[in-house]
Amino acid sequence: MKDLLHPLGLVLASTGFLLLLRDLRRDRRDRALIALSVAYLASALSYAISLTPVWVRVDAFFGVTNIAVPLAQSCVIGVLVAQAVVLVHWAVPDARRARLRTRLLVLAGAAVIAALGVLFTLLTPAEQRPADFTLYYVHDPYYQAYLTLYITTYTVAETVLAVGCARQARQAASPWIARGLRTISVGAVITLGYSAIRISSVLGAVFGFDVRELEPYAWICGDIGAAVTQVGYFLPTVAARAAETRAWAREHLAYRRLGPLWAALHRAVPSIALLPPPRQLTELLRLRGIGFHVYRRTVEIRDAQIELRPYLDPSAREQAELRRTAQGLSDPDLAAAVTADQLRDALVRQRRGARVDEPAGWADARLPSRTADEETRLLLRVAAHFSPPPVHPAASAASAVKDQDPTGART
């Protein structure tokens, strides 16, 4: 059972550690983030060392039979200490007090690891047992003391983690942070099943009852609980990354949907473009955001509307209002569709030089757009109803050069 579940935990812990390394490059002074990275790294090492093929090679490398046991379990103690440090930095706002508690936790963890090392030295197990080490040596008094110390530390740490995260979840401002903390708490409670079975094995050796049949469930509780805990730590991060991905996708979609409207206006009023447009495919392949260019595109479209104002025919607006209303449209789609028709008519008039004595206003001026996002959403509605007027062949050849960015890509 151990060799079936540990690879899953190894993959999960290693992936978490690698993802955290990226965040550490941005902020190396975040002590909670550093402690969480240590927890994932120590967890990955404990899983790796406990795998039977690695266990055998570790023993051979050090020349000590079953040395993999204290090494792997020392890593687990490291996980418990690091998790406690993370919880301290989350729960204690005073940085000085948090650092003091961190030192105490590290010293306590080091003392437990040292005591486990002494007890293992006294045990001196001669037969390599990667599959059933606990069941085989549980009748040895030194191993009983070793296991009791290890499981007591494990149980106390997981209980504190479960209670502390449940308490923090009630105070969390973000719903995803609260969900992550509750998930950590659930995972910690599940791992207590591992503790209960290991304690039962010690009691069984002392009082003469057998818990061998529970051995698979010990690994199930330990590994599944640890996996749930690791998922809980990452829930807020995954939620944040998902939000960033959705925003990135919306930016690129908005930029693309505004493209035909912007291109038609740019052909008519080239001065609106202060910067050359980027190659969107390149930005997509590099996974870059394009929010600034979406903002520039909305500003440039509005600048073009100002330049085209002298060509707004009031009768064209009236006809567009009647036609679009007959189609069953109502605001905000009605105003957006009428604005799109006004733009098309104004582009035709501008090409002919047919100015209007008393220009009409833009239909979308009656819609509120208090923020940049609202402005973009409004222009996306306009772009959805806009169809550019036909371009004369001579103008088309000239605009093919004018609409290219420095790399030669058409926009």
UniProtKB/TrEMBL annotation:
Keywords: Membrane, Transmembrane, Transmembrane helix. The keyword Membrane applies. It comes from the Bacteria. The chain crosses the membrane at residues 6-21, 33-55, 67-92, 104-123, 143-164, 176-197, 217-236. Pfam families: DUF6545. The keyword Transmembrane helix applies. Residues 247-386 form the DUF6545 domain. Residues 387-411 are annotated as: Disordered. NCBIfam families: MAB_1171c_fam. This is DUF6545 domain-containing protein. The lineage of its organism: Bacteria, Bacillati, Actinomycetota, Actinomycetes, Kitasatosporales.
